[in-house]
Design a protein that fits this description.
Blueprint (H helix, E strand, L loop, with lengths): L6 E4 L8 H5 L2 E6 L15 E7 L9 E3 L5 E3 L12 E12 L2 E5 L8 E7 L9 H8 L3 H9 L2 H12 L4 H16 L10 E5 L5 H9 L8 E3 L6 E6 L4 E5 L5 H5 L1 H12 L5 H18 L4 H4 L1 E5 L13 E3 L6 E3 L4 E3 L2 E3 L1 H4 L3 E5 L2 E5 L2
Parallel strand pairs: 9-10
Antiparallel strand pairs: 1-2, 1-8, 2-7, 3-6, 3-8, 4-5, 6-7, 9-11, 11-12, 12-13, 14-15, 16-17, 18-19
Helix pairs in contact: 4-5, 4-6, 5-6, 5-9, 8-9
Amino acid sequence: MELKEIGIVRNDFEEPQGPDVMRDSESVIEVHSEYEEGLYEIESNNFLQILFYLHLSEGFDLVASRRHGGERGVFASRSPHRPSPVGATVVKLLERNGSELKVRGLDAVNGTPVLDIKPYADPFDSSSPAEEERKEDPRGTIRELIERGDTGKLLLEAGRLHGHFCPYLSLGVVAAQYAVSELENVEPDMEDGVGIVETNSCFSDGIQYVTGCTFGNNALVYRDYGKTAFTLAYRDGPGIRLYFSEEDFLEEEYPEARELFEKVVEEQNGTEEEERQLKEKWREVGFDLVTRSAKDLFDIDRIDSPDLPDYAPIYEDEYCEGCGEKFMAPKGIEKNGRSLCRDCAGEGYLQLDGSGLKEISG
């Protein structure tokens, strides 16, 4: 067996650090001159697979305690101490400068020999057993996080939906995780489980992600009360309602974050640096909140017979005789002998926006 060193890693790590620290940092891969031509068109890839030789690794145990506790076999872990000390990591390609590749995400120390570089290619590398399991059970991973009470990881994932981290997204995650756990994993599938939100703030996105109750699957109901409150219930009962009453908690517990929010968001008068600071503070507050108990944050009430709407009806479709577009039949307007959509008929409609639910005149 013959392996060749095709390059070397350059970064600030002279000895291994925690993988999370290393993967948040940038490295440069210096490809040896005789292999530089092999980098032709590599810039067309956003991500690369890097194989490298773990040259500082000495010895191995077939079974050993791992970083997060518990014992595992070496082939059931990502330990750097292996019979064949080869590491593999997917990195983001930031820039190419001749034979040098600047990357982020490489958990290899300075001076590590690089054995191979490959593009990370869909669909060959993106399909995994975990993804196949998700096809069979889309909420399986979320359910596991809920059962473990891992609100930190739930918040990380909810951030994908919401676009950023903030206190009320976190409160939604905490409330939803508690409610689902207390009701033994009530599921929104086929509307057997129903969620009711009383605000359209960031709070509702935490609810939607964790519970799976959404407007699209008809398992989420919006009541325009303007309260940071959420109810989760089975159709045949019981239910649970959580209400957050400490609306001035930011001023009391996180005054610096509250001042930045007032200037950047409420007054729309913040600098770019203050916007950056707010995002950082919001993230800190958000991840602090998910470490707290729902019982400490919310007033919680059990509901024996929750008031829930009927199952969503299935409506027939019609085509507007004005614009020709299809709409749900009950939404149509008969006008001058024609069946029209509300837009073509010039009729008013209800709109849910940042101010809540309001009627828009035609």
